[in-house]
Amino acid sequence: MFTFVRNLAGFPANPSIYPLASSTTFTKGNLVKVSSGVITNSTNSDDEAFGVMAESIAADEKTHGAVYDNPFNVYRVPYTGNTPALFSRKNIKSNSAAILNGSSTTGPLTVIAVDSANKTVDVIISSHTFTVQEIPTT
Question: What is the pTM of this model?
Answer without folding.
Answer: 0.85
